[in-house]
Amino acid sequence: AQSVTQLDSQVPVFEEAPVELRCNYSSSVSVYLFWYVQYPNQGLQLLLKYLSGSTLVESINGFEAEFNKSQTSFHLRKPSVHISDTAEYFCAAGGYQKVTFGTGTKLQVIP
Amino acid sequence: ETGVTQSPTHLIKTRGQQVTLRCSSQSGHNTVSWYQQALGQGPQFIFQYYREEENGRGNFPPRFSGLQFPNYSSELNVNALELDDSALYLCASSLGDEQYFGPGTRLTVT
């Protein structure tokens, strides 16, 4: 069985400031790890994923996440946020079949 | 290449009724998964279909059932609706490790 914990339900941050959204997972087997973003009244969009190889993965819009096996974490970071980053972010773990999601973190970027 | 589409966008049903939600997979994707996202929660896995066969199920009662058709489109059926079934229902199609989500169907049960 696997579980995903997102420690912060809401994170307010000023525009152009850095942000870190925390995610911890537990699993008895190797898993793939994902970050999804959900804008209001929309479905989920894949932001980035870790399957294997380099533990640092990046998205096209400046987010990055680092897989840390010893701490069972997959925190999402961005050095400078923009207003358009305001959304809910979900961490997820899984394989080809079932994907388990965390409860989400609402990122609020303050002008 | 079209993305994942779902219909209807919104739906209001009465407790005890039955509902069918539909999903068209992304072209070439042979796997579809359904998730329930209650307000303020993360998506919960309902089940997955691969080439028209159920390929895994989450912790949902049998009144949640599904179908996948030869063209890989899919349906989610829920019988005997309960108030707690009110949620956003998401389908996701995949051909490998990455799932592509549709915009969802918002179901309200009154």
Can you walk me through this structure?
The complex is a heterodimer of chains A (111) and B (110). Chain A has 111 residues and is mainly β. Chain A contains no helices and twelve strands. In chain A, the strands form three sheets. In chain A, strands 2, 5, 6, 10, 11 and 12 form a six-stranded mixed sheet that branches. In chain A, strands 3-9-8-7 form a four-stranded antiparallel sheet, with no helix packed on it. In chain A, strand 10 and strand 11 form a beta hairpin. The N and C termini of chain A lie far apart (41 Å). The relative contact order of chain A is 0.33. The model of chain A has no long low-confidence stretch (mean pLDDT 90). Chain B has 110 residues and is mainly β. Chain B has no helices and eleven strands. Chain B has strands at 5-7, 10-13, 19-24, 31-37, 44-50, 53-57, 64-68, 74-78, 87-94, 99-101, 105-109. In chain B, the strands form two sheets. In chain B, strands 2, 4, 5, 6, 9, 10 and 11 form a seven-stranded mixed sheet that branches. In chain B, strands 1-3-8-7 form a four-stranded antiparallel sheet, with no helix packed on it. At the A-B interface, strand 6 and strand 11 of A face strand 4, strand 5, strand 9 and strand 10 of B.
Write the layout of secondary structure elements.
The complex is a heterodimer of chains A (111) and B (110).
Chain A: E1 2-5, E2 10-14, E3 19-21, E4 24-27, E5 32-38, E6 44-50, E7 56-58, E8 64-68, E9 73-78, E10 87-94, E11 99-101, E12 105-110
Parallel strand pairs in A: 2-12
Antiparallel strand pairs in A: 1-4, 3-9, 5-6, 5-10, 7-8, 8-9, 10-11, 10-12
Chain B: E1 5-7, E2 10-13, E3 19-24, E4 31-37, E5 44-50, E6 53-57, E7 64-68, E8 74-78, E9 87-94, E10 99-101, E11 105-109
